[in-house]
Please model this.
Amino acid sequence: MSYARRATPRKTLSALRPPLAGFPFFAHADVFPLQVDAAVYSRVNAWWLADASFLVYGDADFIEAAIAASPLARQGFELQWLGTRENNRGMILSSDTALVVVFRGTRLEVHSLLDRAEIFILNQDDLWIDSQFLPTVCRVGGQVHRGFLTAYAEVGAQLDAIVAGKRPAQRLWLTGHSLGAALATVAAAHFERAAVQGLYTYGCPRVGDAHFVGVLPAHAYFRFVHGDDWVCTLPPELLGYRHGGVMRHVPGPSRRPWLDELARGLGGLASAARTLARQLHLDTGELPIQIAGLADHAPIYYATGLWNELLDHSHTGS
Model:
């Protein structure tokens, strides 16, 4: 049976504000179910966990509806929240054989500006976490981004209890995008290596120093980077931060020189300004994003690229 590849979405500010209504979350998960016992890289899991990391940005109603409409419910997956339903740090998908912890990344919020434009800004709580970039000592070893460690501590006790209560047959998988990827990495270091079946992160910033990286489950840690995603270059190495895991590039359009990107972006901004002058209203979410380092970070590109890669290799069964 053949399945359709997905077109790369237009690069706009709206793409950076997930999730996306109408996106086929976990479509065909009945044909490509999570490979819970995978001990090596799995393209199925790369796509499946990218979808989960994209979906977790939604509010509770959105997430519950998407899961109910997907094959996951029929596969026995149950949903619970990391934190509360109304104010969560992520979600947990559990079945008889899997315990998948999906951490949510930094949120963007829409605000109306004088009823003339809609603007996007970072959620202030998440911005506060991201901005605490100086390293601090981590209990498991090495030094870690202070904001990431503080955010993880808010849900650490709850996660400890959930993992301690998992059934012997359940395999623990950790994932997330952006800030969520960083928190998944902290969680992987927190648990014993043998306890973590897999850690797949998307658009992950650097989390800790070389000592910290050394305690991560290297055998099952895959770190995905799409295009020129600039978040993956932060915090800088000069502060002692290092990446861990096996890096895998996510397929996507070929890169363009940054000066070309800048020129296209300025052209789009000028066009938007003319629209505002004519119509006295502008949805800035439709502004094109041409600077690749920002545009490439959107989780929809990770989910789309990894689905297409899975289809390209589906004949191998991997």
User: Anything to note?
Assistant: The radius of gyration is 19 Å. Residues 13-310 form a domain with the Rossmann fold fold (CATH 3.40.50). The chain has nine helices and twelve strands.
